[in-house]
Please model this.
Amino acid sequence: MAWTRKFLRIDLTKGTVKVEDLNMKWADEYLGQRGLATKYFVEEVDPKVDPLSPANKMIFTTGPLTGTMASTGGRYSVVTKGPLTGAIACSNSGGYFGAELKFAGWDMIIVEGKSPKPVYLSIADDKVEIRDASHLWGKTVWETEETIKKTHQDPLIHVSSIGRSGENGVLYACIVNDLHRAAGRSGVGTVMGSKNLKAIAVRGTKGVGNIRDPKEFMKVTFEKKKVLADNAVTGQGLPTYGTQVLMNVINEIGALPTRNHRDVQFESASKISAEAMHEKRPDGKSHLVTNQACFGCTIACGRISKLDEKHFTVVNNPKYWGASGGLEYEAAWALGCANGVGDLDALQYVNMLCNEDGFDPISFGATIGAAMELFDLGLIKKEEIGFDAPFGSAEALVKLAEMTARGEGFGKVIGLGSKRMCEKYGRPDLSMSVKGQEFPAYDSRGIQGMGLTYATSNRGACHLRSYTVASEVLGIPVKTDPLTTDGKPELVKAFQDATAVFDSSGVCVFTTFAWTLADLQPQLAAALEGDWSMDKLNLVGERIWNMERMFNNSAGFTSKDDNLPPRLTNEPAKTGPAKGLVNGLAKMLPEYYKIRGWDNDGRPTNETTARLGL
Amino acid sequence: MQKSLHIDPVKCTGCRQCEMACSYENYGVFNISKSRIRVFDFEHTGRKVPYTCTQCAEAWCMHACPVEAIKLDADTGAKVVHEDVCVGCKVCTIACPFGTVNYMADRGKVQKCDLCGGEPACAEACPTGAITYIDADWTGLDKMRQWAEKTGNQASA
Model:
């Protein structure tokens, strides 16, 4: 099978490296990546653990299709307990790092303890060393990657690292690999920083073999690449416009959260859209340079852009004049719409800072939105920030991003995330978050299913746990009405379970714009020994979802935490197709629990756990 | 008619499907470190450029080999390394001006692109048409067509 069957256990407290055999029984029950690593995590870590204590662990994990020719087969995930939420965290990234880890002969790395001093992990096939990183501490992600490649005299190394925000305890710090791909959400980078682990550098030359039926695998992966190529979204929309194709669409349907969700449409949306990235600027160039693929990806939604060198953010700073990653839709929304800033170049500059110093643009941007509302209400004073921070101020956004990256002044408050910040100023209701994690770019008054998605997501508010936008807006796989709650509990459950399988396989969830589980199934079946029928995959997806849920229950989460901020359930949308609507979570949640086989407190019943083998 | 690999870097997205296809074709594993074609990522310009052997007519590697391990495949025009003859002396890697012949420490041999006997796996795997396998005498055809289209309307003047 497509596993190396070996993983590394790194004890940073003792400074030891151990090789262990992969538990193949668990691989059969939890597939890989998100599922399998979470199984290891829940078996080994106390759910009540302080996320930033040495007792928390973090697992870097690949899927069975990572490092193969299956399209998008380059993903890895980081599983830990998240400091932003206190819930299970699992953040997924592309780029080349995941495949390289597998090529080095490792399915997974479990990191435990805390190093007494800054270190990085160097992996070159079987040679695994914990190395001093005191010269890297205080450096950005970009400097870290460059320095490590120079030190080892090997440009083919791939690095996954934290920037200064991960060192400074920004609670939504990312782990960034290959300059601008990130395990972005829930503060997995903060956990890495708390362990004094600056980076993991990998070079692998062993490759991935052990495909059960190589001929069948090549045939079926080729066919499925054709499905992606022939699909309007994955074959044309995403390569041409990236995820930013959504900006104008979501604005039109009145589900574009604006100014901390006060509004659902943004008057400047078109200025920061995919179309705007293609247009010529005053300097005669367009913002977008090219698209880019992650490892193995035949979609290539990634954006590579260049700033206008005369823009106020970079006019004296040539360091930021080169091509760089961004903007993707979620970042453009959070940095732009959430705080009312319609300046494309300012957003891209801040996005570059997020990549350079490793912090989540979604949580950061949404926290700025909340700070601007608190400023607007007079609850945060100019003296505290050091300057005015009204909605729409690109200057304030940019300064606060620089301060957050470096852990300076009011940046320290922004680094807490919106929940802690809004509590501090006496208005917890103004944090647009669930379980402490900020919403992404879809207003659940205009896309009702997303309200349930957010409320029940195991890692706090997130679009990637059940992207019902696909059905409710784009009609994938079937069109449902975004303005009603009818049928949404079933829809959310189906998306959650299927997504858990995709996230555990090594491929990218963006394939699901064209693929269903039935397209993934034959690729897994050709790669792996054992039963990988549709029935099995459906069961595995549901099992993973419930396992994560049970961890959160044990960590102290109850049905009360499956909630939305009052703004979304009490304040009707002001404009657009959803005008007058609030989110109907109260209608959906009980039905969802029932379909899930959970009791009224949101706990899986004994019958459910028995059925799922949990 | 001979064909040759034709690379259009503007179309390359950096996905590495070509590298995996190459390693799978030749060694039965997905292992880009064994690939005979490499994609270079020029981060500061956003350009991604696949690069491999161009099968020189007067191939430096072939002439430099002291044991005649690199031979011409008359059907494809490829200069092919015969592993059973290669002694791993690496002189060809020094002779090649483009760096496209490389040593493999684990096998004690050199490797280079052999056009997969006339069906290059990289070209088949490339999802964007950045790598194609076309008439060796007309690699400029596409560019000619583009310019013909651009200038066609002025021809009558």
Remarks:
- Chain A has a mean pLDDT of 97.
